[in-house]
Amino acid sequence: MNRYRNLALFVFLAAAWGASFMAIKAGLGTPADPGGFLETPVLFAAIRYDVAGVLMLGYAVYATDSPLPRGRDQWATVAVGSVLIMAGYHALLFIGETDPAVTSAAAAVIVSLSPLLTTGFARAFLPSERLAPAGLAGLLLGLAGVVVLSNPDPNDLLSGGAVAKLLIFGAATTFALGSVLTRRIDSDLPIETMEAWTMLGGALLMHVVSVALGESVSAVSWTTDAFLALGYLSVVASAVGFLVYFVLLDRLGPIEINLVSYVAPVFAALTGWLFLGELPTVHTVAGFALIFVGFLFLKRESLRRELPRLRRALH
């Protein structure tokens, strides 16, 4: 039963984070349709986690007996999460996505390097998390599926917006490293408390960066899209999404949970079809198939154990 619960949570997280790319774009606005947080991307990310952090702190006070971190290991976990998973990842991602030369397809390919980066960091910090050759093949197939699904223009990937793309790559790198180091520290801090304080710490750091970049609240255009995007990103993608993420990080480890960055583009494509009328293409179907085969490679042992149970249940 726990396996199916973990699968359901994983799918929910992929859906929530897949739709968040659309919400980020809506909240930022575009040069052709100015509005929202286009001129203040780091402030956008900071306010997102102000709201999410306060919500989670209230939940931590309600749900746990330890709403405040104690001891070196617990505060180290909060520091790693604040700097790398929250502030580092989101500040770099939001700044990178403001560059009109960076398409959503190019950004998706870059962010989807996270599982491979996680595998590399795990080899250095978590020897028990290393993948067998078949598992590594599954990772590469999943990455190929994301590339096919996104169907990026090679010229767009290799030219224009070079600095922005390096920033997005830096975002994927900090997220991967933060996931591994959080697992390595392995403090007994309740997940709700860890999430609340890492969000608040990350928000504080992003406000500092925002001020250093000269961003100002007066430059924000509070459009309907900006409000809706901020609400979705704060509550669904952040407060609820990261609660699920940290639960699965503890249960599955950093390599498996960061595969969510492979599945998220699938839901981005589906939501684009459902809400924006973007019809699936041959690349969409082929990408889905490659991602599915990659998961079969990665989860081959679990599937081998589960198939006899399913056969017995069906007979």
Automatic annotation (TrEMBL):
Keywords: Membrane, Transmembrane, Transmembrane helix. The keyword Transmembrane helix applies. Residues 9-150, 166-298 form the EamA domain. One of its GO terms (cellular component) is membrane. InterPro entries: AA-Vitamin_Transporters, EamA_dom, EmrE-like. The chain crosses the membrane at residues 45-63, 75-95, 101-119, 131-150, 162-182, 194-214, 226-247, 259-276, 282-298. Its main location: membrane. The keyword Transmembrane helix applies. This is Dmt(Drug/metabolite transporter) superfamily permease.
